[in-house]
Structure formats: structure tokens, C-alpha cells
Amino acid sequence: IGSNSAEADSQTEWTDVQKKIIPWKNSSPSLDLEMVFQDRAAKLGKSNSRLIVVASLIDKPTNLGGLCRTSEIFGASALVVGNLHYIQDKQFQHLSVSAEQWLPLVEVKPSQLVDYLQQKKTEGYTIIGVEQTAKSFDLTEYCFPEKSLLLLGNEHEGIPANLIHHLDVCVEIPQQGIIRSLNVHVSGALLIWEYTRQQVIKQKQKK
């Protein structure tokens, strides 16, 4: 029973790569993230944003590396990946250009996403899916909440139906061409930028 219990714990635990982050299982996730925000802003002089980018469904190292770089550049608070082993991949490192050293990375396996999204909802995050649906908001008309969690879909299948039900809103990027889909890194980058423009740059301009 003890071994089975330990195995169950390991399957539901979200682990971090930065030593400064306390593991999820042994402490409050919201408190941990607040520590990350404060530590990051103090040491790096970056914005104190509340944007979490969830890329657990993405399995191409090039897309993950590019997202890591984009998330770090625009001051996202964390990038969530399905497996931390991706950061050792040469293609990931080529695209990230060391961004993983400055951006908190959190491992949440695809099978853990429902629980993770529910946890973030209890912490006040709005769960935003990048997906074309009948009720999607146009990116140009959507106002991002301060505490936003951006869920990106798989390269081929998008966001699965079982996760769509856990989203608060879907946002899609207006398109003019014949091809109706963007690379997931490009889609993520556009939404990360729009969040930054609304929540970070405009706030600085007001001060």
C-alpha cells in the first residue's frame, strides 16, 4: 500500500526546475508563485506580470524553445511544459538561447492538466484557450485579466475536448489568408504580446 501511495503522489506532483521555487506538493502553490514574481522582479528588473503560459500539450522541442524565449522576453511569470527533459534537447536550446535559465519552468504532464487548471482557477486565474470555436473572442477585442493563464494546444490536434470544458474563454487570432492555422509558437507569441501590451506596457504608461 505504501508503494502504491507513493506512486500516486508522484503522478500528481508538479515539479519545478528552478531551485528557488518550492515544490508544489509541500507548500502552497499560490504562495510559491508570489515568491517567484517578487524574486524575478527584484533580481531581473522585469515586469511583475501574472501571465502563465501552459505548453504541456506541445511536443516539438523547437516550438517549446521558441515559446520559452518569447515568454522570457515579454516577462511571463512561468512556462508550463509537459516534461522538463525538453530543456536538454539541442533544438530546444538552439531556439531558447538560454531563456530557460531566467524563466521559471514548471512540469505539468498532460494527464495532470485538469487538476492544474482547476487549482489555478481557485487562485483567481482566468483560463484562456487559444482555439477557434463557435464562441471564440477575436483577439483584437479581448481584454486580458491581470491573472491570465494561456493554454496552448497540440501542434496537430489543438486543445482536446475534455480540456475545452475547463476553459473560461477561447480567443482566436483574426486571419485573412487561405491557410486557417498558425504555428503554435506564433499563436502563443501573438497572445503573449497582446497581454503584455494591455497589462504591462499600458500600466507603465499610466504611471
From TrEMBL:
Residues 51-192 form the tRNA/rRNA methyltransferase SpoU type domain. It is an enzyme of class 2 (transferase). Its EC number is 2.1.1.34. Gene3D superfamilies: 3.40.1280.10. One of its GO terms (biological process) is tRNA methylation. Keywords: Acetylation, Methyltransferase, RNA-binding, S-adenosyl-L-methionine, Transferase. CDD domains: SpoU-like_TRM3-like (cd18091). It holds the Pfam family SpoU_methylase. It catalyses: guanosine(18) in tRNA + S-adenosyl-L-methionine = 2'-O-methylguanosine(18) in tRNA + S-adenosyl-L-homocysteine + H(+). One of its GO terms (molecular function) is RNA binding. SUPFAM superfamilies: alpha/beta knot. Belongs to the class IV-like SAM-binding methyltransferase superfamily. RNA methyltransferase TrmH family. Monomer and homodimer. PANTHER family: METHYLTRANSFERASE TARBP1-RELATED, RNA METHYLTRANSFERASE. S-adenosyl-L-methionine-dependent 2'-O-ribose methyltransferase that catalyzes the formation of 2'-O-methylguanosine at position 18 (Gm18) in a subset of tRNA. Selectively mediates Gm18 methylation of tRNAGln-TTG/CTG and tRNASer-TGA/GCT. Gm18 modification can enhance the stability of modified tRNAs. This is tRNA (guanosine(18)-2'-O)-methyltransferase TARBP1. It comes from Eurystomus gularis. The lineage of its organism: Eukaryota, Metazoa, Chordata, Craniata, Vertebrata. The gene is Tarbp1_0.
